[in-house]
Amino acid sequence: MTTPQIVNAPRAHSLKLSTLTLAVGAALLLSGCAAFENSDLFGNSGRSTTSASNSAGTTGVATDVGVAARSFEALSVTAGSNTGTTVGAKIEGLREELRGLQSTMVTQTDRVNTARARATANSRDYHETKGAIASRLQRGTTPGNPELVTQWNSAQAELDSISADINTMSGLSTEIATNASTANYLLEATQATFSLSGAIEEDHRQLRILQDETRQTTVLIERLLTELRDDIARQTTYVANERSSLTTLANAIKTGELFGSGLAVSNIAPPAATSASRPAPAAGTPALVTIRFDRPNVQYQQALYTALSRALEVRPAAQFDVVAVSPSAGSPDRVQIGQSQSRRNAESVVRTMNEMGLPADRIRLSATTRGDVAANEVRVYVR
Hints:
This protein is of the alpha+beta class. The protein folds into two domains: 24-268, no CATH class; 270-383, CATH 3.30.1330.60. The protein contains seven helices and six strands. A four-stranded mixed sheet has the order 3-6-4-5. It has a two-stranded antiparallel ribbon with strand order 1-2. Helix 3 runs parallel beside helix 5 and helix 4 runs antiparallel to helix 5. 37% of the residues are buried.
């Protein structure tokens, strides 16, 4: 399933959440210049920082880079001697595929970091413009001041630029998800090669080394993909809240006065995260929805929307558990691959619920394995 693109249009549908509100926008100081931190867009997870330039040529904009390209550059594929066996030839083919995948990930990670830097630079420009408007309104001005109208249009354009950055990262997320599938395939293929006949001891020694290197690559790709998807979810909420804030400013410009104490200072709600301390619902608890991912492109959105709507009609304050369920049967590598795929499915379901209007703080994500399921599932429970 591809990551949805950000468009400046109203949602086609929304849950009936009379008591629910979207997470509010990033913190602002309305004193002539806006205060803006990278954590407003990208959170604060101990990532390293780098510098980038915005479209106006301003340098020194720091942005979180998460899994840096150097993480993939530090990986290597150990060369092996030619054993002269068919298994040895198979191993060399797998090595070449892994080298190609690592090279691709270096390029894609550079593109992710560039998009993050650009989004941070655009956000700084936006907050400076917005802070200037608010400061002028607090002092009082004429109704419909054309100077403020021009500044408001600039802020709108800068926010549109952030939306474009989110679209770029959404496209990268789709590409990296494909590479994650490739890495899982290579891990499976490496494991399967152990069972081929005609191998010598040296073949199996080289296979074990290749298996370890493939696992390292898979872990890094999964980490980058998780970071990127969290960034996209956070920034999508941020942009939605700021569009609402701009509407409030537009009304203030019409009257020439910013009523009250100014725009509220609040924090962006972080995306839901799995916590080991949060157990899955007890066995036997009926699920509100069970989505079986036993084929590509499962269309679950309408059924999920209907079920959530009915649940919220009965319990407006309901919260939800989203549980990634994967089979526990099979080899350790196959179980690991199933867990990764099931978690990605669950994250996609959570994003869909967010897009339907359910706030992230009403959703709890967890994962489990079961021996009585044959394919990956995502189960949604009411709590």
